[in-house]
Amino acid sequence: MTMQHLLSIEDLDRAGIERIVEQAARFAEVSDREIKKVPALRGRMVLNLFYEASTRTRSSFELAAKRLSADVVNFAASGSSVEKGESLKDTVLTLSAHKPDAIVLRTPWAGAAELVSKWCSAAIVNAGDGKREHPTQALLDVYTLRSRLGELDGASIWIIGDVAHSRVARSNIIAFQRMGAKVTVAGPPTLIPRGIEALGCDVRFTLDELPSADVVYTLRMQRERMSETWVPSLREYASWYQVNGKRLSPRQVLMHPGPVNRGVELSGEVVDSPQAVITAQVEAGVVVRMAVLYELLAGASAPSTSPSSGRPEAAGAAIGERQPA
Ligand code: ASP
Predict the structure, then answer these.
(1) Paired residues of 262 in beta bridges
(2) Neighbours of 325 (CB within 10 A)
(3) How far is the centre of ligand 1, averaged over its atoms, from the C-alpha of 43 (Å)?
(4) Which of 13, 166, 230, 324 has its CA 20 to 30 A from that of 191?
């Protein structure tokens, strides 16, 4: 069964997450080729619709679509008619006239991806909706950890920092647990949402037990989503919660979704240490997003002339087919 949209990580059970990361692993081979392209989504159109800043997510969705031979239109709200007052709905309806097969959407508004999925016929990928969800980040983090640790079953993963305003935290708590990991969230009480234990994770307000973690996942202070002051000062926050050489043990894997604020949630030395897999996470972003676009678009009725390329299980065949230079 193929997905219609990827709005939330909750759309995927463990088997669904495994299917996507395994497909991503097959696509990793494409990224190592001299010509990094397969014809799997030739003739398809992917629209990147970004209302918020993005470095990694937007560039990796663009690359992912291009490596699958789809056409890509990048739309950033700044510099567009959004600045002249056009609403999200009117913008989506206007751009739908170009008949995108998929819309990759990032907005500051929780739930926007669901709304857009009702306004047009394209497959919608939530690339971050306010502080709610960032499902492709969770998938690429599962992919990265599987490459490092093998299965996640029984692994202890600590997510540290501004959990309250982080869409990555929410999606990752769900995804890591679905893959069998034990998740602990840690940070100052003001940045840990009350009742978060309902998601199945443990909560700690200090890093005293951090040595028990196999994976240390750090978060940026989401200042763009804060209307008031949540910590006395960044210096004080860093003194209690910064992951640095003293707090990180050599056996632990260090992750961060980026962008990193060096000297706040992480010290420069650990960012540059071999334990940090931050660059591997960015690399994983391309192949995982290829797998997501492939799953959403190759399964639907395709304009492709190849009788086999419409089926997800035909991925190997599609990958194997080389594109002329
Ligand atoms: N890049 C991630 C996001 O868009 C994390 C962050 O911005 O801190 O949510």
Answers:
(1) 266
(2) 6
(3) 31
(4) 13
Interval 64-87: pLDDT, tens: 999 999 999 999 888 788 878 889
Whether 313 shows a pLDDT value over 70: the answer reads no
Outline where 224-276 has alpha helix (H): 234-241, 268-271
CA distance 125 to 140: 14
**Whole-structure pTM value:** 0.91
The domains located in the chain, with CATH, are 9-134+285-320 (3.40.50.1370), 135-280 (3.40.50.1370)
> For 129-170, what is each residue's pLDDT tens digit?
999 999 999 999 999 999 999 999 999 999 999 999 999 999
Residue 225's CB: how many other CB atoms inside 10 A?
14
Residues in contact with 139: Cβ distance below 8 Å, sequence separation at least 6, in sequence order? 9, 12, 17, 20, 21, 24, 175, 288, 291, 292
Confirm or reject: Cβ of 67 under 6 Å from ligand 1.
no
Query: If you search the block for the tokens 């990796």, which residue do you land on?
Result: 60
Distance 307 CA to ligand 1 centre (A): 39
Site to substitute for ligand 1 among 58, 140, 220, 266, most atoms within 8 A of C-beta? 220
Cα 260 to averaged position of ligand 1 atoms, centre (Å): 9
- Ligand 1, from 168, 170, 219, 225: best to mutate by most atoms within 8 Å of Cβ? 168
